[in-house]
# Entry
Amino acid sequence: MANILDRFKETVEEKKEALTGKKVKVGIIGTGWIAEAHVANYLKCKDVEIVAAADLIPGKAEKFCKANGIESVHLYPDHKSMIDAEELDAVSVCTYNKTHAECTIYALEHGVNVLLEKPMCVTLEEAVAICKAEKASGKILSIGFQPRFDPNMQMLKKIVQSGELGKIYYIQTGGGRRRGIPTPYGTSFIEEKTAGLGALGDIGCYSLDMVLNAIGYPKPLSVSGYTSAFFGTDPAYYPNHPEYADVFTVDDFAAAFIRLEGDIVLDFRISWAMNLDTPGDTIILGTKGGLRVPSTECWNGSIGGPLKIYKTVAGEEIEYEVDMKHDDVDNFYKKIRLFIDAVKENGAAPVPSSQIIYNQAIIDGIAKSARLGKEITLDIPEI
Ligand SMILES: NC(=O)c1ccc[n+]([C@@H]2O[C@H](COP(=O)([O-])OP(=O)(O)OC[C@H]3O[C@@H](n4cnc5c(N)ncnc54)[C@H](O)[C@@H]3O)[C@@H](O)[C@H]2O)c1
# Structure
């Protein structure tokens, strides 16, 4: 993973294509907003053929395919009919969160590799069922966390893993938006029946992945969580759509205190809407150094500025910034390309479920703890 960028310099795409000469047949499940990015990036892969697309809403898949230059693909009214009828190598699950588990499990059970959008699903129980289906199938399941492929995100992990900060014992992470409930394309993000989770799942999963991936994904042990929905349920929030307040049935803010294996604590907060610009930077405290990751206005898994390191050197307290890194390859393209490479080589999933199940356990634990109003112990079965 550390040398991922070098691999791209060698035009991996052409090398892999030459390996088999076979096109990977892909189907798209859910033709909403994010499916556009999947299609655009699959189309950049010469060794991929998008052969089918499915959506529950009549006419939506057809309109989507025409608009995205794939009008010749076969269309289906749901994931099952598509998987049953086609000989697919892989699917992208681009549905709202509430149907992630059923689509992913059905695909895996039918021998199809899966690129599943984030968050992995809604509950820990669903995540466990997904991981069991993956194990039984022997197929590849990768979860769609494209910020993982950002060179600054990789630098963060490199610094922590190098031991430069010593033993990590405290992390503060999260972030969010002052006003940013995602309703530009309707209500699928704000209704419990489709999204299942609000800010907690939508952008909380990114900030959790940033720090958990950096420290090597230790097992979460317990969670004390809080969620609220003061903005989403207020008709005044949506001057053009006051009716959205009636269907808002998820969280727009969440906070939690999480204990991780290795005596590490994680202080978390995430917001789609609040009366503040940011609830703070991400900070990682270690026995030999501290690290600050500047927050961003729109928390979507990106890094807001140079990482800052705090250390004591020769008895002096010093601080220095790590230069921001850039490369010319889009993170979303890397997510798609590495998934296809894994499918072709039967390699390891670029973002494995064995890690993201812990991310999901924390998210589900926060939701459950918030409902109960007390700390809960996380019971994550071995798969
Ligand atoms: N990685 C990213 O940067 C990123 C960005 C935005 C959204 N997402 C994730 O992508 C997912 C989809 O988001 P969106 O904005 O595209 O949602 P959306 O509501 O625009 O589209 C989802 C579509 O899935 C369809 N669908 C649901 N269940 C289905 C099924 N069983 N079979 C076929 N179609 C089905 C719905 O009818 C809908 O058209 C969410 O989980 C979201 O968190 C990821």
Notes: Residues 29-35, 54-57, 60, 78-79, 94-97, 99, 103, 117-118, 144, 146, 185, 188, 202 surround nicotinamide-adenine-dinucleotide (CB under 6 Å). The radius of gyration is 21 Å.
